[in-house]
Amino acid sequence: MRIAVIELDYHSENLISFCKAFQDAQEEIAVFTTLKVYQDVISEGNFSSFRWHLMQENGQTTQKFIQEHLSIINQHDILFFATVESQYYAYSSCEFHPITVLRIHMINSFFYRWQNISPPKNLRDFFDFLHYIFKNLIKERESHHLKIFLKRMDYLTLTHEQIDFCHRTKLLSEGYQVLPVIPLAVFDKKYYKQEITHTLYLTIPGNVDTHRRDYKMVIGIFEKMIPHLKRPVQLTILGRPIGIRGRNILKRFSQMKTKYFILKSYSAEVPQYEFNQIMLLTDVILGPLQLESQYKIFNEQYGSTKISGNYTDIIRYGKPSILPASVPVEKVLLPLVDLYSSPEELQTILLFYLQGNRLTIRKQQMFTALENFTSEKVKKQIVDIFSSLIRK
Predict the structure, then answer these.
(1) How far, in Å, CA of 242 to CA of 237, rounded?
(2) Virtual torsion, Cα 363, 368, 371, 373, nearest 10 deg
(3) Could you tell me if 304 and 315 are in contact, meaning their C-beta atoms sit under 8 angstroms apart?
(4) pTM tops 0.85
(5) How far, in Å, CA of 186 to CA of 27, rounded?
(6) Based on CB atoms within 10 Å of each CB, which residue in 80, 83, 251, 367 is the most buried?
(7) Same domain, 232 and 337
(8) pLDDT tens digit string along 174-213?
(9) Are 324 and 340 a contacting pair, CB within 8 Å?
(10) 29 is in which domain, residue-wise?
């Protein structure tokens, strides 16, 4: 089987997991991506058996890159779009010969845009809102090209079983063919942290975006806990701040530093290697997700229309996690996750990790919980799905 994969939207982590699944596979894999994503991927392993086609960073457009490589793409059996979140016009006019499979990361932004427009909340948001309307929706006719692109896809796949459960029937009724969920993440044992240190290492992965995470709640909890800490806590905010609000959040965390509360944060984009090193050191992932998130100018809901990277980080890095109760968690992963419904519950969970044996218990359950996310099993899932399409 010959599989072509397109990842031109800078989601390195998704492509890394796909490549790890097929690292020693007999299938022929060709990857069409950017130089930056390629560099992130090869830092994770030897993928020299793949054929790499890299978009130049000297002004080459996505449309030109796809057109120049269309004859190569069309030599494959399956064309898998791992992520497409922009420049839909670059694909909408192409005649793809392979069976096409598109992974949908955000339901509302793709299918129900107009019912889910997020009105601007302040003057800065208002200007961003207008810019997107005039540039993307009017000048570039983004919604028009997205509709054409979606109709050209043979099959869609969603990112999580709960999202699939919520939307499969409606998408099928609208004429789309929906495949089973193709896993987003592969568990890599090299990130498993065996020892338990005196310092508890908490990490909030992702850019500091107040639209996506409730940092103020976390600040309020630590303001109560810090005077009573008897064990050091290092909190790493693993992402760059978004706008002045993101910078203000980091400033408030920084003002709370003490002997027992250590803060590590970043002012710019975190390189993939640095991200991986921090996750290797991490004991627990803290994901204080807002129920609603905004992508471009559209509302999304964690758990029902999109999944968080914090969720896939549990699998990818093999780490216990603390998440809001609104986030759907697969049954097999529940032994690794603590869910909270209020700030008080979150504080109680943090105290369990600081004062009790919660971390030891979670680590003992790690390999059993993640046995279905090994590279071998994920690869088999993907191959079974793709093979069934070729046999039709």
Answers:
(1) 12
(2) -50
(3) no
(4) yes
(5) 18
(6) 80
(7) yes
(8) 999 999 999 899 999 888 887 888 999 999 999 999 988 9
(9) yes
(10) 2-185+375-391
Query: How many Cα neighbours within 13 Å face the side chain of 4?
Result: 21
Residue 332 and residue 343 in one domain = yes
Do the Cβ atoms of 149 and 84 come closer than 8 Å? yes
CA distance 308 to 213: 10
pLDDT tens sequence across 21-42: 999 889 999 999 999 999 999 9
Inform me whether the pLDDT recorded for 58 exceeds 80: no
For residue 44, the 8-state DSSP code is: T
Calculate helix-pair angle for 35-42, 12-21, nearest 10 degrees.
50
How many structural domains compose the chain? 2
For residue 293, give every residue at least 6 positions away whose Cβ sits within 8 Å of its Cβ, in sequence order, or none: 211, 212, 299, 300, 301, 302, 306
CATH code: domain of residue 303: 3.40.50.2000
CA distance 129 to 131: 5
Residue 10, pLDDT score: 77
What percentage of the chain carries pLDDT values higher than 90? 75
Q: DSSP letter at 234?
A: E
Residue 237 CA to residue 274 CA, distance in Å, equals 12
Amino acid letter at 121? K
Of all residues in the chain, what percent carry a pLDDT higher than 70?
100
Which is it for strands 298-301 and 292-295: parallel, antiparallel or unpaired?
antiparallel
Q: Are residues 22 and 88 in the same domain?
A: yes
Contact 28, 3 (CB under 8 A): yes
